[in-house]
Amino acid sequence: RDVPESRGYSAYARFDAFADYRAFNDFELLARVSELLAFGATLSLWYDSAPPTGVKRTDVRLSSTIRLSF
């Protein structure tokens, strides 16, 4: 069946300190089982070059999706 993918990337920097930036990247796969039902997975990567104290620079998340289309 159809297995579409999508990607997204964003980056933000402080104007007064360009070395302080954040970057976000998402990658999604979606597998359609039928006209109404699809299963998906999204991998997200978030990076902060200067995070607050006690927060890691990199955060990786994997999420799953069940999508119904009417």
Task: Summarize the structure in words.
The protein is an all-beta fold and 70 residues long. It contains no helices and four strands. A four-stranded antiparallel β-sheet has the order 1-2-3-4, with no helix packed on it. β1 and β2 form a beta hairpin. The chain is elongated, with a radius of gyration of 16 Å. The model has no long low-confidence stretch (mean pLDDT 89).
- Protein structure class: mainly beta
Strand content: over 45%
Main sheet summary? 4 strands, antiparallel
| Low confidence ranges | none
Mean pLDDT: 89
Helix content: under 10%
How many strands in all? 4
Instruction: State the strand order across the main sheet.
Output: 1-2-3-4
Question: Helical segment tally?
Answer: 0
Q: So what's the overall shape?
A: elongated
Radius of gyration: 16 Å
Helix and strand element order: EEEE
Q: Determine the N-to-C terminus distance.
A: 19 Å
